[in-house]
């Protein structure tokens, strides 16, 4: 069985050639700024039409649509990250749940590759040093619990600082008890 590759890349998530790209959406699922705006612009108005049928999404959960005008992907998975400081200490669990639910949905829809943005670290204010560790821990736990279910999980960092922060977190988290990369 080929192990799942976990890759940090720098770029624009709308251009990643993967089965599913993840959107850091808000609870309405009706579009917003940041990565949400970029995904809706790239996917075209049919994405909003499909999102209107979903009746929103709660924080920490995820819903799936087609990718519409984003031709190199099949699906968009819309997840709603926590707003930092607004969930009475539940932020870390909610953020981890965004990653876990998105991965679960991807596998349930036959996706073998998925790309995440840095959920909650833009308008929602989560410090990227903390968010990156939560993200990579949730991804590691899913991959270990579901061996062979995915070929590739990417995190797409939009800035050089985010890229370096996620690389650092990856080095810390993907190390086994013997000190080897796992
Ligand atoms: P949130 O509301 O969950 O904080 P944002 O969209 O405001 O979501 O920000 C999440 C992250 O997505 C930020 O690091 C932001 O720089 C990044 N981002 C914005 N546009 C893109 C894009 N096209 N591709 C990848 N990441 C993006």
Strand content: 15-25%
Record the strand order, biggest sheet: 1-6-5-2-4-3
CATH top level assignment: Alpha Beta
Bound molecules: adenosine-5'-diphosphate
Tell me what the structure shows.
With 182 residues, the protein is an alpha/beta fold. It has one domain (5-173): Leucine Aminopeptidase, subunit E, domain 1, CATH 3.40.220. It contains five helices and six strands; from the N terminus they run ββααββαβαβα. A six-stranded mixed beta sheet has the order 1-6-5-2-4-3, with helices on both faces. Helix 3 packs across helix 4 (128-145) and helix 4 (128-145) packs across helix 5 (160-173). The longest helix has 18 residues, at 91-108. The two termini are 15 Å apart. The model has no long low-confidence stretch (mean pLDDT 96). The structure holds adenosine-5'-diphosphate.
Element layout with pairings:
Blueprint (H helix, E strand, L loop, with lengths): L4 E6 L9 E6 L8 H10 L1 H8 L9 E5 L8 E6 L10 H18 L4 E4 L11 H18 L6 E6 L2 H14 L9
Parallel strand pairs: 1-6, 2-4, 2-5, 5-6
Antiparallel strand pairs: 3-4
């Amino acid at each position: 069985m080929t192990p799942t590759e976990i890759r940090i890349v720098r770029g624009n998530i709308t251009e990643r050639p993967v089965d599913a790209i993840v959107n850091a959406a808000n609870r309405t699922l009706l579009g917003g700024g940041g990565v949400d705006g970029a995904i809706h612009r790239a996917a075209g108005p049919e994405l909003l039409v499909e999102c209107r049928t979903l009746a929103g999404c709660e924080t920490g959960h995820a819903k799936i649509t087609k990718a519409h005008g984003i031709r190199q992907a099949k699906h968009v998975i819309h997840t709603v990250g926590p707003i930092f400081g607004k969930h009475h200490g539940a932020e870390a669990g909610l953020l981890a749940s965004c990653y876990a639910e998105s991965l679960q949905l991807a596998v349930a829809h036959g996706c073998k590759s998925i790309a995440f943005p840095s959920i909650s670290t833009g308008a929602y204010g989560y410090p990227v040093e903390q968010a990156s560790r939560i993200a990579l821990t949730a991804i590691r736990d899913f991959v270990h619990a579901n061996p062979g279910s995915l070929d590739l999980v990417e995190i797409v960092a939009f800035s050089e600082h985010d890229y370096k922060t996620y690389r650092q977190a990856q080095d810390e988290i993907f190390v086994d008890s013997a000190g080897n990369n796992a």
